[in-house]
Amino acid sequence: MDEGVTSLLDGRAADAPIFDPNDWRLSDFEATLCAETRSLAQSKFAGRAADIDREARFPSENYVDLHDRDLMGICIPSEYGGRGADLRTYMLAAAEIGRYCGATALTFNMHVSSCLWTGVLADGVTMTDAQRAEHATMRERHYRRILDDGKIYSQPFSEGGDAAAGKAAFGTTALITEGGWIVNGKKIFASLSGHADYYGVLCTELETPDSKPSRANTMYIAIPKDAEGVSVEGTWDPLGMRGTVSRTLIFKDVFIPFTEQLMPRGVYFHAAKQWPHMFMTLTPSYIGIAQAAYDFTVRYLRGEMPGTPPVKRRMYPTKQLAVAQMKIMLEQTKSLWFQSISEARPNPGKDSMLRAWAAQYSVMENANEIAQLAVRTCGGQAMLRSLHLERLYRDSRCGALMLPWTAELCTDMLGKGVLYEAGETDED
Ligand SMILES: Cc1cc2nc3c(=O)[nH]c(=O)nc-3n(C[C@H](O)[C@H](O)[C@H](O)COP(=O)(O)OP(=O)(O)OC[C@H]3O[C@@H](n4cnc5c(N)ncnc54)[C@H](O)[C@@H]3O)c2cc1C
Question: What is the domain extent for residue 336?
């Protein structure tokens, strides 16, 4: 850890990794990247998180730090000058950020997703030689913006209908016109709205205004924040993840040139089918929150929580039992998640898919369960707003609501997946 970081910690010890590199057999690259994100987030993001949450404002200053530390291109392939992290490496490094500021980790995920889709995931997806060449040119343009100028991308997919759950064509449309598209539509819960430089929008390409929308014609396009016809609507005053600033984005006759494609025509649709583990990228923020709620409880019961009197509460058997429950749940969650992100690959088998849904469900629900156990166990003084546990509790509730793999949809897909083989019905 560098000197600047040590002084910002104000004499406090640096936290241990969520995944000890030796115990979990991380690669050197994974261990190094996790150490980088952890030291940055512990030294800088943690101290800012309370204000960001209270004011429900976007953590712009954290993005300056991420750019300064060469982390904005964490998942940009190394041949383009990025850090070249694959899906698992990114997820492990991002969890360390979630531990100190959930909203930063979640918004960072939206940014990084644009690099994952166009980077390591696209590399593993079937494309023709012509598409591959076209893709190389288009992603270079986006990567240069990110690496050279610190530009931020977001990922507004949700529309309030079935599209974000992968069950219908996106209602946001891109009508082909001379040299580009005319985009119209609305995205709800668009994290980073008004703050990302480019919105990585999923929409349905139409040849004519009367064309029938089809999921196979999904386009992935970068829409500049300041393009004519782009506006941000509504307020943002939610329970948790307040720093994500997930307001509503409106696109009204926005002209976007063909050069702003993030993936060649038709490729996103196949990439999403071939790389389902990509939808797990919402989980690292919540792994971090689960770890943070557990860490809080241990420190608090040991009388070591900064800003509180050094009163020990660890001698009560009920506290010990509760901490044991939390530890069991944390280890179960981490282990299942680690296994699932370790086996992520294109076209996973059925068992791997079932495990991915089980892992997603476990992370999202257990993060909240661990946080609520932490509140109950630490008690009244620990949930005052002067401490960060109540924020962890509120942030932890949001994960299970996020499409396409909400906790409900995970159980739905798991139940059907376990009891039916592909194509089976009860008609026969
Ligand atoms: C903090 C936060 C940040 C977010 N940031 C982003 C972002 O950056 N980009 C983005 O695209 N979205 C984002 N979202 C949106 C999120 O993914 C959901 O789209 C959003 O929460 C809307 O949820 P809803 O409960 O209103 O959905 P609804 O569509 O009302 O669904 C309600 C519930 O019904 C179930 N359900 C939905 N569709 C189906 C179906 N077809 N079959 C069976 N069950 C179904 C699901 O369990 C879902 O939770 C964010 C959400 C939160 C909370």
Answer: 275-419
